Every structure is written in structure tokens, then in C-alpha cells.
Amino acid sequence: MIPLSVLDLSPIREGDAASDAFRNSRDLAQHAEEWGYKRFWLAEHHGMPGIASAATSIVISHVAAGTKTIRVGAGGIMLPNHAPLVIAEQFGTLESLYPGRIDLALGRAPGTDPVTTVALRRSDKSADTFPQDVLELESYFRPAIAGQVVRAVPGAGLKVPIWLLGSSMFSAQLAAELGLPFAFASHFAPDYMMHALHAYRTQFKPSENLGKPHAMLGLSVIAADTDAEAKRLYTSLQQQFVNLRRGTPGQLQPPVDSMDDYWSPTEKAQLEHALAYAIVGSPEKVREKIARFVQFTDADELMITAQIYDHDARLRSYEIIAESSDIMEKSKR
Predict the structure, then answer these.
(1) Which of 96, 108, 214, 275 is the most exposed, having the fewest neighbouring CB atoms within 10 Å of its CB?
(2) Given phi > 0 = left and psi -120 to 50 = alpha, else beta, which region is 111?
(3) Exposed, middle or buried, 108 (CB in 10 Å: 0-12/13-18/19+)?
(4) How many whole angstroms separate alpha carbon 178 and alpha carbon 176?
(5) What local confidence, expressed as pLDDT, does residue 326 receive?
(6) What does the alpha-carbon distance between residue 223 and residue 22 come to, in Å, rounded to a whole number?
């Protein structure tokens, strides 16, 4: 059975506060653990009114404290925003608190706008040193050696799995070069998915971390008991995407009966392109389309994201996906 995981943006719903988002994230993680999901990752964003997971390592600790077995991690930490030593210390702390359960996935984008990037005290050139920063971060998790002045405490000698995230070719090729697992953002960047997977798999060099390529794909799935209900729930994500493209991000809005009066034809076309792999529908449709997606991509793992306004409906969506997973056998290479 192909492993299923959860990507949570800790959405702040219209009318709610960040505290509500954190409570819902923890509750979702507890249910995901019960339903057999492998990982629960949270994403770093800054200055986004509808996303509460800016202080990602703190939210990870909140979720990990409320669960027992599911792996909890960052999907991801935007490394250009941080000194590698600080991230090593944070995730060394998390691994010390929740041993054997912490993942660290790294992204090269800032996860925010240019002005906020400056406010984070980082340069717009920080991404240029991403490969070197990944290597530096890796070094802090190795056992400290005699005479080493700069070390991560806690962190040194701890086994914190590092992943690379990507939405284009760059991180796919870097993950292959460094022998790291790779997660592609196919839930919002479909264009390079197959090219990135091909580059990662064909260029992969085994490392002490990983003997063969391991590719996880992000996938938006909105499941409900009927196609009509799922389609309506999906409009919250559609509104969020349109608002982001307009430069007016906000809290996650309730679903609407129709998007026809909300978006322009151009916006509709842009959104349908960006969300080309989104799966929306009843249990039967979701089961069929996920199985087809796995066969098409030969994914090693799926990371499911679901921006659904109603928390109970979001839980039900993930439950349906878990119930469908018995037929999601990974295709033979």
C-alpha cells in the first residue's frame, strides 16, 4: 500500500483566530494518526492572513505533543529565511522531545512577498546559497568532532530526516545529487512534475541517507459523500487561489454555490491550470482518480492537502481517502 500523508497549512477560517486553526490542526493530526496516515507536515508562510503556521517548529511541537505515533514535520521550512544553525537547533530540540517522529523538509522559496522577506532580515539573494545551506544544515546533525567550535546543541548526532521540496527542476536535481528524498508540489505547480520526477530518478546518487530515490507528490483532494457536496467544498480553495492571484490574500472563506460570479474567465483558466491534478468528488471518484494518479506518476508516497472550510467536512474528506487507500497499490516500475 502506498503511504499517505497530510500537508496542513493550519488554515485560519473567516471569523476564526489563529488559536482555532491550531486546535483544528491538532485535531486533524489525531484523526490522521488513527486512520493510518504516515506523516503530518506543516508549511512555513509569512504575512498570510489565512495561514497560521508561520512559527512552524512551534506548531509542529503543538501537534506532536497531541499525537503518539504519526511522524510530524515541516513541509517545509523555507531555508533562505533562516540561518542553518538555528534550524538545526530547533529540529534537534523537536527530535529530542519527540524521538523518531520528526521530519524536516526544506524549501528554497521565501514563502512570502518581497517586503516581508526583507522584514525577516533576509536578502532576496539568500536563495542563491541554498545548496550550501543544505549541506551546512546536514553537517550540524552529524556527531560533533573534537575541536568543533560551531555545533547544534541539541542537534548533533540526532537522526532528523531531511527532504527537499520543489516546484521546478532545481530542487529535484539537488535532491538527486545529495541523495535525499524529494517532495514535489504538484498540488499547485503541475507543469514540471514529470520532468522533475524524471530528473530526480535518473540522476539520483545513493547516499548514507538513502539508497534509492523516494519521491512524494503533493495532491489536493476534496472528498465528500457526493460529487455535488465535494464540488461545493472545493470553492473555498478556489476562492483562496483567486484572492492570492489578485494580491488580496485573506482568511479561508466558506464555500459558495457557484464561482461564476466570483472569478473572471481568465482567473478560472489560470486556476484550473494550477490545480490540474486536484481531485474532487465522491469516494468512488476519489478512489479511481488517486489510483490513476499513482499509476501515472509511480509515486512512492502521496501528501494530501485539503483546504476545506468546515472542520468536520475536512475530517470526513481525509477519512474517505484513508478508507479508499486499500486499492492504492504502488505500480511496478
Answers:
(1) 96
(2) left
(3) buried
(4) 6
(5) 57
(6) 22
Q: Which residues of the chain have pLDDT under 70?
A: 111, 121-124, 325-333
| 176 contact partners, CB below 8 Å, separation of at least 6 | 182, 199, 200, 201, 202, 203, 204, 205, 213
* Alpha-carbon distances of 264 from 224, 254, 258, 261, rounded to whole Å: 27, 19, 13, 8
Q: How far apart are CA 48 and CA 214, in angstroms?
A: 31
Cβ-contact 318, 37 below 8 angstroms: yes
b/e sequence 111-120, b meaning 16+ C-beta within 10 Å: bbeeebbeeb
- Asked if residue 111 has a cis previous peptide bond (ω within 30° of 0), the answer is no
66 to 6, 69, 96, 106, 163: CA distances (angstroms): 16, 10, 16, 24, 24
Residue 330: DSSP 8-state: P
Q: Is 268 exposed, middle or buried (0-12, 13-18, 19+ CB in 10 A)?
A: middle
Q: Cell numbers of 273, please?
A: 491550470
**pLDDT at res. 282:** 97
